[in-house]
Amino acid sequence: MQVGDILKFAMDHMPFVRGVHFQPISYFGRCSQQRPQAPITIPKMLKLIEEQTDGLMKSEDFAGGGAENPYCSFHASYLKKGERELKLLEKKSGRGCCCTTSDNSRQYVENQWSYSTKKFDDDEMTQTDALDEFLIRVHNETFAVSGMIFQDAWNLDLERLKRCYICEVDSDYGMVPFCAYNLTNSKGIYLYRK
Fold this sequence. Notes:
By secondary structure, this protein is α+β, with helices and mostly antiparallel strands. It is about 30% helix and about 20% strand. The longest helix has 14 residues, at about 125-140.
């Protein structure tokens, strides 16, 4: 896997690229590939991140999901310092997570992944403008790494499904957790989805 190369490419293109979200393949639905003996898990993903960034990002930097079950996703935010140095920002344990209400989700995604293009004229800058410029610069130098790994028939966990906030609305079953809704048997036949 080219985890380190992807992260390096993203950091080399900051501030226009503000982060990377990993979503390894899940073996359900339209996925016709054979499930490997050792598929990607969150611990394996975090180990790859640490190894392939030469310790620039460490597995202990990451927190689990906040709104959903902690075993469903991971995230960390960093502040870029110089060319190849990152400062870990405070871990958010669910606060401001992208997987809460739809209004909060939109605001979180917009804030996390947007690049501010606002410019200030040095000749007419007030103290408030100077603070705003500093905050925008800090915002643009923030880099997020996150990921979500969906469940399939081989690792389905009822406790994780009970806390799922990513649901599909079904006329027969109501709100169905995304992983259960897309679950298929080995022949590709859906359990819930029509």
